[in-house]
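Anyone? Bumping this.
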Amino acid sequence: MSGIEKNRFERDTWIRKTRRISTQGQVLVKTGDLVKPETVVAKGTVVNPDVRKVIIYGQLDIDPDEVERYMLKEEGDEVKKDEVIAIHRSFFGRSTRVCRSPVDGSIMSFSKSSGSVLIRGMPIAVEVKAHVPGKVVETIPGEGAVVECKGTLIRGRFGVGGERVGELVIAVARRDESLTEELITNELKGKIIVGGSTVTIDALRRAASLGVNGIVVGGIDQKDLTDFLGYEIGLGVTGKEETGLTVITTEGFGAHSIEEETFHLLKSYEGKQASIDGSTQIRTRMLRPEVIIPS
Amino acid sequence: MDPKGRNEPYLIVDIDDSLTKAVLIDRIGGDYKIMGISEAPTTVDPPTLDVTVGVEKAANDLSQKTGKHTWEDKRPSRAQRLLCSSNTGGGLYMMVAGVTGMISAESAQRAALGAGALLIDVFSFSDPRPDFEMIETMRSMNPDMFLLAGGIDGGAVNQVLEMAHLIAAADVKPRFGAQFQLPTIFAGNIEARKRVLDILSGKKYAVQAVDNVRPAIERENLGPAKEAIYDSFRQHVIIHSPGYERLASWVDEPLVPSQAAIGNILYSYSMERKANLLAVDVGGTTTDIYSVYNGVFNRSLNADIGLTYGISNIMKMAGVEKIMRWIPKEMGEREVRNIIGNMMVLQPASLTPDEVLVQQAAAREAIRLAVENHKWIASRLKGVKTVRTIADIFGQTLEPTYLDLMKTRVIIGRGKIFTQNQISEAAIVLLDALQPEGVTEMMADKLDVMPHLGMLLKTNPDAAKQILLREGLSRLATCVAFRGRSTIGQVTMKVRMIRSDGATSEYEVRFGELKTIALGGGEKATLEVTPRRGLDLGMGRGRTLETEVIGGELGLILDARGRPLNVPARKDILVMWKNSLTMKQQSSP
C-alpha cells in the first residue's frame, strides 16, 4: 500500500526505548535498575518561553542611553514579580519613578541602545517517565536513559495524543465492527480500547469524557477526527494534542478493518497492560504511533 | 577538461531526499544531447549514511545504459566533468529577520528564496508577535542558517541591534546538531555591522557580514547575500550530511541547492526568449513558484503545501470545498477527506483513479495558494515613494505585483502531476490553476532535468540552453484566452489561423467552451483573433490580436471560459472541458 511501510508488528521482541528530557538535567535511574512505566527517569528544567520586553526609559521618563545609570539589576539577576528593577529619583528625591518586573524570572539581556530589558520567566520543570516496564540498560548523562523491555510492538499508521498506559480491552467482537458510543461503557475508564474498523465521533467524545486512556482502531473518518480535535490537521506531525485520550489507527483514514493478524494479536493480549503513543511524524523522522504490550 | 580541450561529457547529479538522479550529457557532432538518465535511491539516511553510494549507483546505471564509463577507481571517472546540486534533508532551512517587514525583511526573504532556501519564518519589528513569542519561535525551530538584514546604509542602527539581541537571546540551534554554530549572515546597515558581529559572535553563531540587501530604500542588492548563502550552504550545512565532504571533493563546480539551479536555468530561458515567464513546481511537500517579469527574477516557496505529505495542508489552507469543486465527478466530503488523509499518511506509490482526481484537484489549489503568495514576493520595492500622475491612478499602473498573466508568455509546470499523468490532464491543471490570459505557451519539465541544466548553465551555457529547448521542455500547447466574461453560448472569439504552408482555417469559440486545434509541436502559425466587445486579449477590449503562435503536443487551445474562471457546479462541464483538450477541432463556420 505504501512505500514507507515498516513491519506492522514485532512479536515477543526486545524493545529499547530512549527516554530523555529536552534539556540537561538530573538522571534519576542507573544502569540495571528495574523501572515501571510511571518511574521518573530524568528531570530538569527548560527555559521558559515567556520573555517580556520592558522598556525602562519610558517608565523612568529618561533617554534610552541614560537607563544604565538607574538600573538596580544586571543581566542574569533573578527578579520577582513587581520587584523594582530600575529607579530614577529627581528633584532631590521628591519625584521618584520606578520600573517593576512584570513576572518572576531573570534579566535575560539589557540593551543600552534601546534602554530596555528582556526578562524571562522562571524555568519550567520537565520530567520523563519510563513509559514501559523494564530494565535500564544505559544512561544518557544529564538527559535520561535507555529502557529495555521484552514485548510485542505494533506500529500504527497515524495517531493523535501522546504516551499513555492502560489495560487493553477488546470492545468489539469482529475486526470490521465499528466502535460506537454504546460500546464505551463506564468500566472502560482508564483503559485502552481496541475497536474494529472505525470509531464514531460520538464514541470518541464519550471515551474522552469518561477518561478512557486510548483507542486503537483500523481507521478513523478524517472529518470525525477534525471535528473531535476542533481543528484541521495540516501536517502529519502529532502527539501533543490535548484531547484527553490517545487515538491510534492501524490502517489510516476511513473505515478499514484492523489487519487480521494485528487484530488477533491484540485480542490475545486482552487484559494486559499496554503502553501506547499516538505521536506521528511522517516527513522528517518517520515516527509512527505504536502500541507496546510488555511480556 | 581533457587534453583536447573538451569539457564533455558531463555527469550531472541532482540529489533530493528520496532520489539521486544522474544525467549524462555529451556532444555529438555539433549538438549537445542527453545520453542517458538514471535514478537511484538517495543514501543519506541509515543504514547507508553515505550520499556517494547513491551517486555511484546512479552513475553505474548510466554506464550500463550508455556504454560510457562514468565511474572508475571508486570515484567518478576523470574523463567527464561532475556537477552536482542537492536538496537533501528537505532543502536549505532558513530563517530571516529584518527591521521592517515590508522593506528589509522582504529583501532578505527574496535573497533567501532566490538562493533556493526553504523559508521557515520571517521576523521583523512590524511582526504582530511580541518579542518573547518571536524568541520562542526562533528557538523552537532548528534552521540551517539565519539571515539578518535591516536598515539602509548610513541609517539608524538601534532597531537592527535590537533584532540582533533577540537572535542572541534565542540561542537558535542549527538543525544538524546543537554542538555546531548556526551559520548567520548579516546583510544590513553597514554602520551596524561591527556591533551586530559583537552581539552575535560571542554566542553560538558563526557570523559573517556581507553587503546590505537594501543599501538604499529604492535599491535592492541581493547578490552578495545569495553568494554568502551558497558559501554557508557548502561550508556548514551539507557538509554535515554523510558523504558530502567526499562528494564536494569530486565535483568540478561547487554544489548548490537544487532550487537555485532551477532558478538559474529559468532566468536564463526567460532572458534568451525575452519573454516573461511563470513556473510552478508542485512537489510532495512544497510548492515553488518562479517568475521572471521584465528581467526581474523571483522565487517564492510554500513549504508544507504539496501533493503527498503536504496535501492535508492544502485542504487546511484552501478548505475542502475548494478542492472538491475541481473534482469532475460526484464525491462526498468524507470520501475526499479520507483520500487526502491517506495520501498524506501513506504516500502511496500508485494511485487509484479517484485518488488521481483528488490529487489533481488539490494541485490546482496548491498552485492557486502558491501564486497568491508569490504575488507578494514578486512586487516592486515597497517603501519607495513613487510619483503618481492622474493617468497612473486611472490606468492603475501602480499594481502591487509584477505578476500579470496577460503579460506572461510562458508558463511551465514541474513535478509529477505534470509528467506522470496524461498531457491533457497536465494542461488542464495548468489552465485551471493559473488561468493564463492573452497568448501563453504552456510547457512541462517532462524529463525533470531543470536542476541539472541549471548546474550546466554556469559551465557550458550553450549546452544547457540547447538541451533545454530541444529535450528538457516539452511544449504542451499554446493557449489563447481572453480577460472578461460573457453569456453562455455567445461567440466570444473569431479566430483565423494561417499555417506556415499558407493553409487558412477559421474558428468560432463560444463562451464556456474550450477548443483544441491541431498544430504540431514546434509548428508555427499566424493567428488573428477578434474577441467580442468587452473582452480583452491584451490589445484592449474588443480589439483584434495578431500574433505568431507555436504548436504543442495538444496543439492550440482556445479557452473561452472567461477570466476570472468560474468553476461550474455541474460536474459534466468539468468532464467536457477535460475531454475537449484531446479532441482536435476542424475549421468551424
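Late reply, but here is one note on the structure posted above: The longest helix of chain B spans residues 353-377.
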